[in-house]
Design a protein that fits this description.
By secondary structure, this protein is α+β, with helices and mostly antiparallel strands. The protein folds into two domains: 2-226 and 380-386, 2-Layer Sandwich (Ribosomal Protein S5, domain 2); 232-376, GHMP kinase, C-terminal domain (Alpha-Beta Plaits). It has ten helices and 14 strands. Strands 1, 2, 3, 4, 7, 8, 9 and 14 form an eight-stranded mixed beta sheet that branches. A hairpin with a 2-residue loop joins strand 8 and strand 9. Helix 2 (99-122) runs parallel beside helix 3 (144-159). It is globular and about 65 Å long. It starts with a strand and ends with a strand. The model has no long low-confidence stretch (mean pLDDT 92). It binds adenosine-5'-triphosphate, (R)-mevalonate (MEV) and magnesium ion. Adenosine-5'-triphosphate binds next to helix 2, strand 7, helix 3 and helix 4. It catalyses: (R)-mevalonate + ATP = (R)-5-phosphomevalonate + ADP + H(+). Residues 296-365 form the GHMP kinase C-terminal domain. GO terms for molecular function: ATP binding; metal ion binding; mevalonate kinase activity. Its EC number is 2.7.1.36.
């Protein structure tokens, strides 16, 4: 059996970090995707080829036996392996402790844990070969881990026949989408992968990667946005590596130490999301130019306030602050997206802004060694792309 799955990255428009504490978030899928080719093997190994992280190795039958003995849970109730099992896996032996090695370990452990958990439930004995690549910058706040986890979840659930390969797609594209029920199961197992990578994820990232489109998210409750404002955004990559797990952990530590300081900040972030939804509705109503212009001004002000609150949480970074200042000096409004600490920011591009102004901003950002690209929001979630 051999097939290919893909899933989108995401941009969190508002609500990062506060969504971990039950506040609302708005997020949208991106046209950038992760792709994983999956082939069943007779041999009891996992063969990995993930070019983006220079991973070309196998998880041997010895490690699979150890891991499978440690995993439990059922198809509808996934259960994470005990972190201590990492110490007994040969495939995770540290060649060294640099960041690149830690990222590789994260991938290998997530892949093996998802595979062993689902294979044990299926009672099968086969191995698997995985070849992965991504359009997304990895570790940059665009949901690469969720996109990757959603691909693995959909791939292994299909490999073990827990879900059927989906019928042809509606619009004739090469992306075939599973049923809502199957997507809910995929999302549950993608969340399992995110818990290994993020530590304490909210579930917003894997929900966008799995269901696609633009969603309003709160405590696992997913509401597709009735209208996705025709927002043009510029994604800006600081190219500063960082770990979402560490940044989520930093906010948790600060909030536990001074809840009286941090809870009001998170509550304000929740109110920003409410106000943004109102601005989106106005933009979607194709109202008159004056009302539309006011709605965009409200949106830009909310972006600025949200960024200041993220700085107060301690999850911005000098390069992100530089991006926001560079944008604001020429009338654009930017905020970090994702966990922060580096990674990406985005700014909204008003429909009436000239191409020349946009190109001038891109030139200025590139001279500061930032990558930037215009992006469309929305688009399909996880899909079977071939055969
Ligand atoms: N294409 C891929 N191949 C293999 N592993 C991947 C891939 N994409 C992401 N990963 C895994 O996800 C980790 C990055 O996850 P992390 O959550 O830190 O960043 P992110 O998801 O890009 O940002 P954010 O969570 O803020 O949106 C990598 O270290 C790697 O383990
Ligand atoms: C920082 C965070 O809110 C978004 C990371 O993309 C973490 C999460 O929601 O899992
Ligand atoms: Mg992530």
């Amino acid at each position: 059996m051999e097939f290919v799955v893909s899933a989108p990255g995401k941009v969190i428009l508002h609500g990062e970090h506060s969504v971990v504490y039950g506040k609302k978030a708005i997020a949208s899928s991106l046209s950038l995707r992760t792709t994983v080719k999956i082939r069943a093997l007779e041999e009891n190994i996992i063969s990995l080829d993930f070019s983006d992280l220079n991973i070309k190795e196998s998880v041997g039958s010895g490690d699979l036996t150890i891991l499978e003995s440690q995993v439990s849970g059922s198809l509808q109730e996934p259960c994470l392996p005990n972190e201590s099992v990492r110490n007994s896996l040969k495939c995770l032996e540290l060649q060294n402790t640099n960041v690149e090695c830690l990222l590789k370990q994260q991938t290998i452990f997530t892949t093996a844990s998802l595979f062993c958990s689902l294979r044990k439930i299926s009672g099968r004995k086969q191995g698997v070969e995985l070849v992965g690549m991504s359009d997304l910058p990895i570790g940059a706040g665009l949901g690469s881990s969720a996109s990757f986890s959603s691909c693995l979840a959909a791939g292994f659930l299909t490999l073990f026949d827990f879900i059927q390969t989906p019928e042809c797609s509606e619009n004739g594209s090469n992306k075939r989408i599973w049923s809502k029920l199957d997507l809910e199961l995929i999302n549950k197992w993608a969340f399992f992968g995110e818990k290994i990578i993020h530590g304490n994820p909210s579930g917003v990232d894997n929900s966008v990667a799995t269901f696609g489109g633009a969603i309003h998210f709160q405590r696992g409750e997913i509401t597709p946005l009735q209208c996705i404002p025709k927002l043009n955004i510029l994604l800006i990559n600081t190219k500063m590596p960082r770990s979402t797990k560490k940044l989520v952990g930093l906010v948790k530590e600060r909030k536990e130490k001074n809840p009286e300081i941090y809870e009001p900040i998170l509550q304000s972030m929740d109110e920003i999301t409410n106000a943004v939804m109102k601005a989106y509705d106005q933009i979607c109503e194709n109202c008159d130019d004056v009302t539309m212009s006011k709605a965009y001004s409200d949106l830009e002000n909310l972006i600025d306030v949200n960024q200041h609150l993220l700085q107060a949480l301690g999850v911005s970074h000098p390069t992100l602050d530089d991006i926001c200042l560079t944008c604001s000096t020429v009338g654009f409004h930017a905020k970090l997206t994702g966990a922060g600490g580096g990674g990406c920011a985005y700014c909204v591009i008003r429909p009436d802004v000239s191409e020349e102004a946009i190109e001038s901003l891109k030139r200025e950002l590139r001279t500061r060694n930032f990558e930037c690209w215009e992006c469309t929001l929305g688009g399909p979630g996880v899909a079977l792309t071939s055969p």
